[in-house]
Amino acid sequence: MPKLKLNIEDIDKTSVSSVKLDKKTITLSPGKSEQLRATVMPANAANLKVTWSRDNSQVAEVDASGNVTGKAPGFAKITVTTENGGFSDVSMGTVVPERAPASPDIAGHLTSAESTVARSLEAFRN
Fold first, then answer.
1. Looking at the structure, do residues 88 and 107 belong to the same domain, yes or no?
2. What's the chain look like in SS3?
């Protein structure tokens, strides 16, 4: 008859039950970065390790610490996944073109087209 070996350490290990990101959306410009933070629950789980990924490498990169860097305008889904249990959460990343400074006309005023663009961008950001 085969013997069953049971280690007490195995009984005391707490499994992961979920992971949650601190931000559901982030907005970046190309070359700019923002940190996402993952909270693995319960906090006393035996294995708190996570991996990070993104679905669109042309738009954004994410490193092993959750730092997201914009590459080009577009959208990218940033996913964190627990090593224990495979639980995941997602943040939607938007990379927007860097806002160019408006150039005044000869009299020092914004041109009509630039003024319209500036108002549209300001409304989008708010």
1. no
2. CCCCCCCHHHHHCCCCCEEEECCCEEEECCCCEEECCEEEECCCCCCCCEEEEECCCCCEEECCCCEEEECCCEEEEEEEEECCCCCEEEEEEEECCCCCCCCECCCCCECHHHHHHHHHHHHHHC
pLDDT of residue 124: 57
Joined together, the tokens standing for residue 59 give 């738009």
In-domain check, residue 83 = yes
Which residues span the domain enclosing 29? 17-95
Q: Please tell me whether residues 107 and 125 are part of one structural domain.
A: yes
CA dihedral of residues 39, 42, 48, 53 (deg, nearest 10): -40
Residue 25 pairs in a beta bridge with 92
Q: Is the pTM of this model over 0.85?
A: no
